[in-house]
Structure to design on (366 residues):
Protein backbone atom coordinates (compact mmCIF):
# COMPACT_ATOMS: atom_id res chain seq x y z
CA UNK A 1 0.00 0.00 0.00
CA UNK A 2 1.13 3.55 -0.69
CA UNK A 3 -0.35 6.85 0.47
CA UNK A 4 -0.13 8.22 -3.05
CA UNK A 5 -2.11 7.28 -6.10
CA UNK A 6 -0.77 6.54 -9.58
CA UNK A 7 -2.50 8.81 -12.05
CA UNK A 8 -1.47 9.94 -15.51
CA UNK A 9 -2.42 10.66 -19.12
CA UNK A 10 -3.87 7.41 -20.44
CA UNK A 11 -3.74 6.59 -24.13
CA UNK A 12 -6.72 4.31 -24.63
CA UNK A 13 -6.48 3.63 -28.36
CA UNK A 14 -4.62 4.58 -31.58
CA UNK A 15 -6.45 7.93 -31.71
CA UNK A 16 -4.92 9.09 -28.43
CA UNK A 17 -1.92 10.32 -30.44
CA UNK A 18 -4.14 13.01 -31.97
CA UNK A 19 -4.35 14.68 -28.57
CA UNK A 20 -6.98 12.42 -27.00
CA UNK A 21 -5.16 11.07 -23.94
CA UNK A 22 -7.38 11.02 -20.84
CA UNK A 23 -6.28 11.72 -17.25
CA UNK A 24 -6.99 8.80 -14.93
CA UNK A 25 -5.74 6.18 -12.47
CA UNK A 26 -3.57 3.23 -13.38
CA UNK A 27 -2.25 0.20 -11.53
CA UNK A 28 1.57 0.22 -11.40
CA UNK A 29 3.54 -3.01 -11.60
CA UNK A 30 3.45 -5.16 -8.48
CA UNK A 31 5.91 -3.76 -5.89
CA UNK A 32 9.18 -5.64 -5.49
CA UNK A 33 12.09 -4.80 -3.18
CA UNK A 34 14.23 -4.04 -6.26
CA UNK A 35 11.93 -1.14 -7.20
CA UNK A 36 11.87 2.61 -6.66
CA UNK A 37 8.75 4.80 -6.67
CA UNK A 38 9.33 8.28 -8.05
CA UNK A 39 7.23 11.40 -7.55
CA UNK A 40 7.62 12.95 -11.00
CA UNK A 41 8.45 16.63 -11.51
CA UNK A 42 9.55 16.59 -15.18
CA UNK A 43 9.18 14.35 -18.21
CA UNK A 44 10.51 14.98 -21.71
CA UNK A 45 8.41 14.22 -24.79
CA UNK A 46 10.17 11.80 -27.16
CA UNK A 47 9.23 10.93 -30.74
CA UNK A 48 8.82 7.35 -29.48
CA UNK A 49 5.84 8.44 -27.39
CA UNK A 50 3.95 9.12 -30.62
CA UNK A 51 4.87 5.76 -32.20
CA UNK A 52 3.67 3.96 -29.06
CA UNK A 53 0.42 5.89 -28.62
CA UNK A 54 -0.52 5.18 -32.25
CA UNK A 55 0.51 1.49 -32.18
CA UNK A 56 2.96 2.35 -34.96
CA UNK A 57 5.45 -0.27 -33.79
CA UNK A 58 2.81 -2.99 -33.33
CA UNK A 59 -0.18 -3.30 -31.00
CA UNK A 60 0.20 -1.23 -27.81
CA UNK A 61 -1.30 -2.86 -24.68
CA UNK A 62 -3.73 0.00 -23.93
CA UNK A 63 -4.27 1.78 -21.65
CA UNK A 64 -0.77 3.20 -21.91
CA UNK A 65 0.89 6.15 -20.17
CA UNK A 66 3.88 7.24 -22.28
CA UNK A 67 6.93 9.31 -21.28
CA UNK A 68 10.41 7.89 -20.68
CA UNK A 69 12.49 10.90 -19.80
CA UNK A 70 11.51 11.03 -16.15
CA UNK A 71 12.94 13.13 -13.31
CA UNK A 72 11.58 13.31 -9.78
CA UNK A 73 12.16 12.44 -6.13
CA UNK A 74 12.42 8.88 -4.83
CA UNK A 75 9.51 8.41 -2.42
CA UNK A 76 9.83 4.67 -1.79
CA UNK A 77 13.00 2.61 -2.19
CA UNK A 78 13.12 -1.18 -2.10
CA UNK A 79 15.42 -2.93 0.40
CA UNK A 80 17.62 -4.30 -2.37
CA UNK A 81 18.34 -0.88 -3.90
CA UNK A 82 21.57 0.46 -2.44
CA UNK A 83 22.45 3.52 -4.57
CA UNK A 84 19.26 5.57 -4.00
CA UNK A 85 17.55 6.73 -0.82
CA UNK A 86 14.18 8.33 -0.18
CA UNK A 87 14.30 12.03 -1.09
CA UNK A 88 17.04 11.73 -3.74
CA UNK A 89 16.54 13.41 -7.10
CA UNK A 90 16.59 10.61 -9.64
CA UNK A 91 15.84 9.86 -13.28
CA UNK A 92 14.59 7.02 -15.47
CA UNK A 93 15.09 6.65 -19.21
CA UNK A 94 13.43 4.36 -21.73
CA UNK A 95 14.22 1.08 -20.00
CA UNK A 96 12.57 -0.23 -16.81
CA UNK A 97 14.13 -3.68 -16.46
CA UNK A 98 16.18 -6.41 -18.11
CA UNK A 99 16.92 -9.98 -17.01
CA UNK A 100 20.18 -8.92 -15.27
CA UNK A 101 21.36 -12.54 -15.09
CA UNK A 102 25.04 -13.40 -15.23
CA UNK A 103 24.11 -15.98 -17.86
CA UNK A 104 22.86 -13.19 -20.19
CA UNK A 105 25.66 -12.11 -22.53
CA UNK A 106 24.18 -8.63 -22.92
CA UNK A 107 23.26 -7.87 -19.30
CA UNK A 108 26.58 -9.16 -17.99
CA UNK A 109 28.58 -7.03 -20.42
CA UNK A 110 26.92 -3.64 -19.96
CA UNK A 111 24.54 -3.93 -22.89
CA UNK A 112 21.30 -4.10 -20.91
CA UNK A 113 19.40 -2.19 -23.61
CA UNK A 114 19.95 -5.18 -25.93
CA UNK A 115 18.89 -7.87 -23.41
CA UNK A 116 17.23 -10.64 -25.40
CA UNK A 117 15.73 -12.46 -22.40
CA UNK A 118 13.43 -10.11 -20.48
CA UNK A 119 13.62 -6.52 -21.67
CA UNK A 120 10.95 -4.22 -20.24
CA UNK A 121 10.45 -0.73 -21.63
CA UNK A 122 9.49 2.14 -19.33
CA UNK A 123 6.02 2.14 -20.84
CA UNK A 124 3.91 -0.12 -23.00
CA UNK A 125 5.53 -3.38 -21.85
CA UNK A 126 3.89 -6.29 -20.07
CA UNK A 127 6.14 -7.71 -17.32
CA UNK A 128 6.93 -11.39 -17.97
CA UNK A 129 5.84 -12.94 -14.64
CA UNK A 130 2.46 -11.39 -13.98
CA UNK A 131 3.87 -8.26 -12.28
CA UNK A 132 1.59 -6.11 -14.45
CA UNK A 133 2.39 -3.48 -17.09
CA UNK A 134 4.88 -0.63 -17.29
CA UNK A 135 3.58 2.95 -17.23
CA UNK A 136 5.61 6.04 -18.11
CA UNK A 137 6.13 9.61 -17.01
CA UNK A 138 3.17 11.72 -18.19
CA UNK A 139 2.00 11.05 -14.67
CA UNK A 140 2.30 11.85 -10.99
CA UNK A 141 4.29 8.73 -10.04
CA UNK A 142 6.42 6.06 -11.66
CA UNK A 143 7.64 2.64 -10.45
CA UNK A 144 10.84 1.24 -11.98
CA UNK A 145 13.52 -1.33 -11.12
CA UNK A 146 16.29 0.44 -9.18
CA UNK A 147 19.05 -0.65 -11.58
CA UNK A 148 17.51 1.71 -14.14
CA UNK A 149 16.97 4.59 -11.68
CA UNK A 150 19.89 7.02 -11.67
CA UNK A 151 20.91 9.84 -9.34
CA UNK A 152 21.11 13.17 -11.20
CA UNK A 153 24.27 15.33 -10.84
CA UNK A 154 23.59 18.58 -8.95
CA UNK A 155 24.95 20.72 -11.78
CA UNK A 156 22.07 19.70 -14.08
CA UNK A 157 18.60 21.20 -13.76
CA UNK A 158 15.71 18.73 -13.76
CA UNK A 159 14.23 20.21 -16.94
CA UNK A 160 17.55 19.90 -18.78
CA UNK A 161 18.43 16.46 -17.44
CA UNK A 162 15.06 14.89 -18.29
CA UNK A 163 15.42 14.70 -22.10
CA UNK A 164 19.00 13.46 -21.81
CA UNK A 165 17.67 10.21 -20.35
CA UNK A 166 16.39 9.01 -23.73
CA UNK A 167 17.00 11.69 -26.38
CA UNK A 168 20.51 12.37 -25.13
CA UNK A 169 21.70 8.83 -24.49
CA UNK A 170 20.34 7.50 -27.79
CA UNK A 171 22.82 9.66 -29.69
CA UNK A 172 25.60 9.82 -27.06
CA UNK A 173 25.99 6.02 -26.99
CA UNK A 174 26.56 5.47 -30.74
CA UNK A 175 28.74 8.59 -31.00
CA UNK A 176 30.98 7.33 -28.20
CA UNK A 177 31.01 3.72 -29.38
CA UNK A 178 31.89 4.67 -32.94
CA UNK A 179 34.85 6.88 -32.23
CA UNK A 180 33.38 10.39 -32.18
CA UNK A 181 36.22 12.59 -30.94
CA UNK A 182 39.23 14.60 -32.04
CA UNK A 183 40.14 14.10 -35.68
CA UNK A 184 36.62 13.08 -36.68
CA UNK A 185 33.99 14.77 -38.83
CA UNK A 186 30.51 13.78 -37.71
CA UNK A 187 27.10 14.23 -39.35
CA UNK A 188 23.82 14.27 -37.47
CA UNK A 189 20.82 13.60 -39.70
CA UNK A 190 17.41 14.85 -38.53
CA UNK A 191 17.87 17.78 -36.16
CA UNK A 192 14.90 17.35 -33.85
CA UNK A 193 14.95 16.25 -30.21
CA UNK A 194 17.56 13.50 -30.62
CA UNK A 195 19.43 15.29 -33.40
CA UNK A 196 20.00 18.48 -31.45
CA UNK A 197 21.55 16.36 -28.69
CA UNK A 198 23.65 14.74 -31.41
CA UNK A 199 25.16 18.10 -32.32
CA UNK A 200 25.72 19.03 -28.65
CA UNK A 201 27.30 15.72 -27.65
CA UNK A 202 29.43 15.32 -30.80
CA UNK A 203 30.96 18.70 -29.92
CA UNK A 204 31.28 17.81 -26.22
CA UNK A 205 33.09 14.61 -27.20
CA UNK A 206 35.60 16.72 -29.13
CA UNK A 207 34.78 16.00 -32.78
CA UNK A 208 36.77 18.29 -35.10
CA UNK A 209 33.79 19.10 -37.24
CA UNK A 210 30.06 18.56 -36.77
CA UNK A 211 27.54 18.86 -39.59
CA UNK A 212 23.81 19.12 -38.87
CA UNK A 213 21.62 17.73 -41.66
CA UNK A 214 17.85 18.22 -41.69
CA UNK A 215 15.17 19.20 -44.19
CA UNK A 216 14.22 22.65 -43.00
CA UNK A 217 16.25 25.74 -43.91
CA UNK A 218 14.86 27.74 -41.00
CA UNK A 219 16.83 25.58 -38.55
CA UNK A 220 20.19 26.76 -39.94
CA UNK A 221 20.88 29.55 -37.43
CA UNK A 222 19.79 27.39 -34.51
CA UNK A 223 21.97 24.46 -35.50
CA UNK A 224 25.02 26.67 -35.93
CA UNK A 225 24.29 28.23 -32.52
CA UNK A 226 24.09 24.74 -31.03
CA UNK A 227 27.71 24.39 -32.07
CA UNK A 228 27.59 22.76 -35.51
CA UNK A 229 30.28 23.88 -37.95
CA UNK A 230 27.95 23.52 -40.91
CA UNK A 231 24.30 22.89 -41.67
CA UNK A 232 22.77 21.19 -44.68
CA UNK A 233 19.07 21.81 -45.38
CA UNK A 234 18.26 18.84 -47.60
CA UNK A 235 14.91 20.36 -48.49
CA UNK A 236 16.48 23.59 -49.81
CA UNK A 237 20.22 23.30 -50.56
CA UNK A 238 20.20 22.06 -54.16
CA UNK A 239 22.92 19.52 -55.01
CA UNK A 240 23.84 18.94 -51.34
CA UNK A 241 24.46 15.25 -51.90
CA UNK A 242 27.17 16.01 -54.50
CA UNK A 243 28.69 19.00 -52.73
CA UNK A 244 29.22 17.11 -49.46
CA UNK A 245 30.02 13.67 -50.91
CA UNK A 246 32.55 11.61 -48.91
CA UNK A 247 33.11 14.23 -46.22
CA UNK A 248 31.98 12.49 -43.00
CA UNK A 249 33.58 9.77 -40.85
CA UNK A 250 30.45 8.98 -38.89
CA UNK A 251 26.73 9.66 -39.29
CA UNK A 252 24.03 9.17 -36.65
CA UNK A 253 20.58 9.28 -38.26
CA UNK A 254 17.49 10.08 -36.18
CA UNK A 255 15.02 10.26 -39.08
CA UNK A 256 12.16 7.79 -38.89
CA UNK A 257 10.82 7.83 -42.42
CA UNK A 258 10.73 5.00 -44.93
CA UNK A 259 11.07 7.68 -47.59
CA UNK A 260 14.24 9.41 -46.37
CA UNK A 261 16.99 9.81 -48.99
CA UNK A 262 19.16 7.11 -47.41
CA UNK A 263 21.38 6.53 -50.44
CA UNK A 264 22.27 10.22 -50.50
CA UNK A 265 23.01 10.18 -46.75
CA UNK A 266 25.27 7.12 -47.18
CA UNK A 267 27.07 8.92 -50.00
CA UNK A 268 28.17 11.58 -47.50
CA UNK A 269 30.42 9.03 -45.72
CA UNK A 270 34.11 8.83 -46.43
CA UNK A 271 35.41 5.38 -47.45
CA UNK A 272 35.34 3.12 -44.34
CA UNK A 273 32.85 5.48 -42.67
CA UNK A 274 30.03 4.33 -40.39
CA UNK A 275 26.29 5.09 -40.51
CA UNK A 276 24.23 4.39 -37.37
CA UNK A 277 20.44 4.42 -37.57
CA UNK A 278 18.53 5.30 -34.39
CA UNK A 279 15.29 6.72 -35.84
CA UNK A 280 12.66 3.98 -35.66
CA UNK A 281 9.95 4.24 -38.36
CA UNK A 282 6.47 2.86 -37.88
CA UNK A 283 6.63 -0.72 -39.18
CA UNK A 284 10.44 -0.60 -39.02
CA UNK A 285 11.19 -0.42 -42.75
CA UNK A 286 13.99 1.72 -44.17
CA UNK A 287 14.45 2.57 -47.84
CA UNK A 288 16.21 -0.24 -49.75
CA UNK A 289 20.02 -0.10 -49.81
CA UNK A 290 21.78 -1.03 -53.04
CA UNK A 291 24.71 -3.40 -52.43
CA UNK A 292 26.99 -1.29 -54.61
CA UNK A 293 26.40 1.71 -52.35
CA UNK A 294 27.96 -0.33 -49.54
CA UNK A 295 30.62 -2.10 -51.61
CA UNK A 296 31.73 0.87 -53.69
CA UNK A 297 32.07 3.17 -50.71
CA UNK A 298 33.40 0.52 -48.33
CA UNK A 299 31.05 1.66 -45.57
CA UNK A 300 29.32 0.10 -42.57
CA UNK A 301 25.64 0.48 -41.62
CA UNK A 302 24.44 -0.26 -38.08
CA UNK A 303 21.90 0.58 -35.40
CA UNK A 304 21.76 1.43 -31.72
CA UNK A 305 19.20 1.29 -28.91
CA UNK A 306 19.25 3.90 -26.11
CA UNK A 307 22.20 3.10 -23.77
CA UNK A 308 23.03 1.27 -20.55
CA UNK A 309 22.64 2.82 -17.07
CA UNK A 310 26.45 3.11 -16.88
CA UNK A 311 26.56 5.02 -20.18
CA UNK A 312 23.72 7.29 -19.03
CA UNK A 313 25.67 8.12 -15.87
CA UNK A 314 28.76 8.86 -17.98
CA UNK A 315 26.74 11.12 -20.30
CA UNK A 316 25.17 13.03 -17.40
CA UNK A 317 28.61 13.64 -15.92
CA UNK A 318 29.97 14.82 -19.29
CA UNK A 319 26.98 17.16 -19.64
CA UNK A 320 27.65 18.54 -16.16
CA UNK A 321 31.40 18.93 -16.75
CA UNK A 322 31.15 20.45 -20.24
CA UNK A 323 28.08 22.51 -19.42
CA UNK A 324 25.91 20.98 -22.14
CA UNK A 325 22.63 22.88 -22.25
CA UNK A 326 19.85 21.33 -24.33
CA UNK A 327 17.31 23.60 -25.99
CA UNK A 328 14.10 22.78 -24.23
CA UNK A 329 10.63 24.26 -24.02
CA UNK A 330 8.77 23.62 -20.79
CA UNK A 331 5.08 22.72 -21.15
CA UNK A 332 2.62 22.13 -18.35
CA UNK A 333 1.73 18.48 -17.79
CA UNK A 334 -1.86 19.70 -18.01
CA UNK A 335 -1.22 20.54 -21.70
CA UNK A 336 0.27 17.17 -22.63
CA UNK A 337 -2.35 16.57 -25.34
CA UNK A 338 -1.51 19.80 -27.16
CA UNK A 339 2.22 19.22 -26.69
CA UNK A 340 2.19 15.81 -28.45
CA UNK A 341 0.22 17.31 -31.35
CA UNK A 342 2.77 20.14 -31.60
CA UNK A 343 5.65 17.66 -31.63
CA UNK A 344 4.00 15.71 -34.45
CA UNK A 345 3.64 19.01 -36.35
CA UNK A 346 7.41 19.59 -36.07
CA UNK A 347 7.06 22.64 -33.82
CA UNK A 348 9.41 21.63 -30.97
CA UNK A 349 12.68 23.60 -30.71
CA UNK A 350 14.04 21.19 -29.82
CA UNK A 351 12.60 19.15 -26.94
CA UNK A 352 9.37 19.67 -25.02
CA UNK A 353 9.60 18.90 -21.31
CA UNK A 354 6.38 18.44 -19.37
CA UNK A 355 6.40 20.00 -15.92
CA UNK A 356 4.27 18.46 -13.19
CA UNK A 357 3.85 21.78 -11.37
CA UNK A 358 2.29 20.33 -8.23
CA UNK A 359 5.22 17.96 -7.62
CA UNK A 360 7.88 20.39 -8.89
CA UNK A 361 6.63 22.99 -6.41
CA UNK A 362 6.68 20.47 -3.57
CA UNK A 363 10.28 19.47 -4.40
CA UNK A 364 11.37 23.12 -4.64
CA UNK A 365 10.12 23.63 -1.07
CA UNK A 366 12.05 20.63 0.31
P1 LIG B 1 11.69 14.58 -33.44
O1 LIG B 1 12.02 15.53 -32.34
O2 LIG B 1 10.39 14.64 -34.12
O3 LIG B 1 12.88 14.72 -34.51
C1 LIG B 1 12.93 14.04 -35.74
C2 LIG B 1 13.50 14.97 -36.79
O4 LIG B 1 13.71 14.25 -38.00
C3 LIG B 1 12.54 16.10 -37.11
O5 LIG B 1 12.85 17.26 -36.37
C4 LIG B 1 12.73 16.33 -38.62
O6 LIG B 1 13.42 17.55 -38.84
C5 LIG B 1 13.63 15.17 -39.08
N1 LIG B 1 13.10 14.52 -40.29
C6 LIG B 1 13.75 14.36 -41.47
N2 LIG B 1 13.02 13.71 -42.36
C7 LIG B 1 11.86 13.45 -41.77
C8 LIG B 1 10.65 12.85 -42.21
N3 LIG B 1 10.54 12.37 -43.45
N4 LIG B 1 9.65 12.77 -41.33
C9 LIG B 1 9.76 13.27 -40.06
N5 LIG B 1 10.88 13.86 -39.61
C10 LIG B 1 11.90 13.96 -40.45
O7 LIG B 1 11.81 13.07 -32.89
P2 LIG B 1 12.90 12.46 -31.88
O8 LIG B 1 12.34 12.46 -30.50
O9 LIG B 1 14.21 13.07 -32.14
O10 LIG B 1 12.90 10.93 -32.33
C11 LIG B 1 13.39 10.56 -33.61
C12 LIG B 1 13.25 9.06 -33.84
O11 LIG B 1 14.14 8.34 -32.97
C13 LIG B 1 11.85 8.51 -33.53
O12 LIG B 1 11.54 7.54 -34.50
C14 LIG B 1 12.03 7.83 -32.19
O13 LIG B 1 11.10 6.81 -31.96
C15 LIG B 1 13.42 7.28 -32.36
N6 LIG B 1 14.11 6.90 -31.11
C16 LIG B 1 14.90 5.82 -31.15
C17 LIG B 1 15.59 5.43 -30.03
C18 LIG B 1 16.53 4.28 -30.08
O14 LIG B 1 16.88 3.72 -29.01
N7 LIG B 1 17.02 3.88 -31.26
C19 LIG B 1 15.42 6.15 -28.83
C20 LIG B 1 14.62 7.28 -28.83
C21 LIG B 1 13.96 7.66 -29.98
P3 LIG B 1 13.24 18.30 -40.27
O15 LIG B 1 11.79 18.58 -40.39
O16 LIG B 1 14.11 19.50 -40.13
O17 LIG B 1 13.76 17.35 -41.30
ZN1 LIG C 1 12.69 8.21 -26.26
Amino acid sequence: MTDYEFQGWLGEDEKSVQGHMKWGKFEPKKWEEDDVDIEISHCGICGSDLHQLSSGWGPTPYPCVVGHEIIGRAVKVGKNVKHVKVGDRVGVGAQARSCMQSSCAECSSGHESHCGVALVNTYGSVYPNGEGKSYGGYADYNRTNGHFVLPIPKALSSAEAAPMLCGGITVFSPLKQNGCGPGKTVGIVGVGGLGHFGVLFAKALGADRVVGISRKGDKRDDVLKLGADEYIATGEDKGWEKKHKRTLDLIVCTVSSEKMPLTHYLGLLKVKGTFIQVGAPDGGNLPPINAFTLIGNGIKVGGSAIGSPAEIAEMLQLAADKKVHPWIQERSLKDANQAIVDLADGKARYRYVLVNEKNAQRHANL
Observations:
- Residues 46-48, 51, 166-167, 170, 190-195, 214-216, 219, 254-257, 259-260, 278-280, 304-306, 343, 346, 348 surround NAP (ligand 1) (CB under 6 Å).
- The first helix runs from residue 47 to 53.
- DSSP finds eleven helices and 17 strands in the chain.
- Residues 167-303 form a domain with the Rossmann fold fold (CATH 3.40.50.720).
